[in-house]
Amino acid sequence: MAEQIPVAVLIEELKSENIKKRVNSVRQLSTIAGALGKDRTRTELVPFLVSELVEDEDEVLAALADSIGDFVDLVGGPAYAVSLLPVIESLCYNEDTVVRDKTIEALKKILARLEARRAEAQIQAMVKKLCTGESYTAKSAATYIIPIVYQSLSPSAQAETITLYGLLGKDEVPSVRKAASLNLKDLLKLLPTAPENELVNMMKLFAKDEQDFVRFYLIEDLLTFARASNAQKQQAVALPFLRGLAEDPSWRIRYGICDKLSEIGSMLGKDTARRIFFPYFIKYLQDGEAELRNIACLRMGKFVAFLEVEDVLQKIIPLLKALSLDPLNYVRSALAGAFGGLAAFIGKKSSNDHLLPIYLTMLRDESPEVRVGCLASLEELSRVVGMEVISQSLLPTLVDLVVDKSFRIRVAACDFVCVFAKTLSDDEFASKLSKFVVDLINDRIFAVRDAAIKCLRNLAEIKGSIWTERNLLPLVLSQQVKTNYLHRMSTLFGLSVH
User: Fold this and answer.
1) Where are the alpha helices (DSSP H) in 260-350?
2) Which string of DSSP letters, residue by residue, matches 407-431?
3) Which end of the chain is more exposed for a tag (fewer CB within 10 A), N or C?
4) What's the rounded Cα separation, in Å, for the pair 95 and 86?
5) Between the CA of residue 355 and those of 191, 352, 376, what are the distances in Å?
6) The predicted structure's pLDDT at residue 156
């Protein structure tokens, strides 16, 4: 009779109105399974989980998905692991993405232990049921499962599974087609084992889909396809798709292409990237959608590697003035961060002639985020044009940022102080910036105080012990009389740096 208690307790706890008790009970399933033994776990506990938990709260089901992947030994080992598939199938009907993701991970664990060929019929039956039912969540889950189980199936079962996946790509529910497009890349990674013609037909289907998110995920599918074994052939197939997406009426699709331009360039080679995708990049820099202008500026430093210097001077440089006056701060900030990469590419003379005037103007931008963006490209830019050319213009900007009302800006300013420490003379740095750094260790925001302490540590390493003792240590020690205990603690942290 005592043997029956674990199941009775489990049922009682799982039916409790208290969700915490139900979650706790599910998390103890392995203990209960151990008490029941392998046979009763297979014949009683697993069926109970399938019949009683499918409608439970997401938190309970997430806990179940977390646990079930480790049940293989508890049901008798690999020979009996197939008995866990009904639990996986039931969890696939849940709409919560956390539950689904945990379920997929659990399935991977089970398949790693499962004698797949002996269980092919059960695996195939589960996949078919998920794909052909009415539940869109089950169909979506199937798009994750098919690439996982594909290689463990026989050729005939593989062919049927690919057919089922193709049906999901045509499903009337957009979220199912979106999931099919998202996970197609995992099937493409299986080339040449997976049938190329069928997968290319799916990509053609997704390229024409009316839902932009279906087309959006096609970008990664195409990149995966082009990296496949017969790369030259795959690239020739992928290129027309990529060109079509680069001209897509949806800005999200064009955004996705712009975000991946460096990968596309690496895949296709410099000549093709320059000839075909450079004109699109120029259009993106002038696009009416701010998000697209932003991502083009963010990716500019990497994409110019596929161009010639003359391309940048003749086509990109003339657009920078307008971008530096963009009405949106984050676009101007993205441009400011691109100056370092551009300068390194076009060289000192062209940078002095074309970039530096715009850069110095943006240093006086009304937005702190833009000025921080300028400082972010400072180190790389200074290596090209020389710090002495811009240091006097930068110092007032840095001083403004150190006292900015936004604590995030003050944190960022701490990082840039050390860049100046490497280039300014010891006396010049001590007279113009040391006091500001010490003041920051008294900031009312912990993140700023912490950044200032790290800055002190870096300054001590850059300037050396003698300079630190003469210039920083007296300023740090002067803080010990502060009335606020947080400031006195910051003094202790500052002393630990030295």
Assistant:
1) 261-268, 270-272, 278-285, 290-303, 309-311, 317-324, 329-336, 339-346, 348-350
2) HHHHHHHHHHHHHHHHHS-HHHHHH
3) N
4) 17
5) 46, 6, 15
6) 92
Q: How far apart are CA 72 and CA 342, in angstroms?
A: 56
H/E stretch holding 219: helix 212-226
In angstroms, what is the C-alpha Rg of the chain? 30
Distance of CA 100 to the CA centre of its chain: 19
Token readout for 197 is 């013609």
pLDDT at 415: 76
- Collapsed DSSP state (helix, strand, coil) of residue 390: helix
312 close to 347: Cβ distance less than 8 angstroms: no
- Characterize 23-36 residue by residue with b for buried, 16 or more Cβ atoms within 10 angstroms of its Cβ, and e for exposed: bebbebbeebbeeb
15-19, 64-68, 338-342, range with the lowest pLDDT = 15-19
pLDDT at 397 over 90: no
**Per-residue pLDDT tens digits for 187-239:** 999 988 889 999 999 999 999 999 999 999 999 999 999 887 666 778 888 99
Label residue 407 by pLDDT band (50, 70, 90). Answer: confident
| Cα gap 149→165, rounded to integer Å | 12
Q: Is the dihedral of CA 63, 64, 65, 68 positive or negative?
A: positive
More confident residue, 459 or 138: 138
Ramachandran angles phi, psi of 143, nearest 5°? -70, -25
